[in-house]
Amino acid sequence: MSGQATEPSLVRQRLALQRERTIAIILMVLQALGTAIIAFAIIVDSRDWYWWALVAACGVVVAVGVRRLRRANTAIHEFEARHGADAGRQN
Which of 10, 39, 65, 74 is the Cys-Cys partner for 28 at CB 3.0 to 4.6 Å? Predict the structure, then answer.
């Protein structure tokens, strides 16, 4: 071998793209659950300012999850446009 980096197989490429998408979905779901719990805490006792800070922080993390999901979906669509809709799929 001449030391050239070989491109991963289509299966590995698709798995990497799907992994990013799955991580984004899990991030959004967990943070949405956390936000709901914190919102309940605010309803019960809204006197403390740190609950509002936690809601803001959770909102930022949910936004990051949405951004990651959009990027992953875009990357999957570009991959499918380059290699075909079934490229890298295993049955």
Answer: 65
The pLDDT of 22-45, averaged and rounded, is 88
Chain segment 37-50, per-residue pLDDT in tens: 888 888 887 777 78
Domains of the chain, by residue range, sit at: 11-83
The residue-averaged pLDDT of 64-76 equals: 94
First to last CA, the chain: 32
* C-alpha to C-alpha distance for 63 and 89, rounded to whole angstroms: 30
DSSP string spanning the chain? --SPPPPPPHHHHHHHHHHHHHHHHHHHHHHHHHHHHHHHHHHH----HHHHHHHHHHHHHHHHHHHHHHHHHHHHHHHHHHH-TTTT---
Q: pTM (2 decimals)?
A: 0.77
For 24, 37, 48, 50, 77, the CA distances from 12, given in Å and listed in that order, are 19, 37, 48, 43, 16
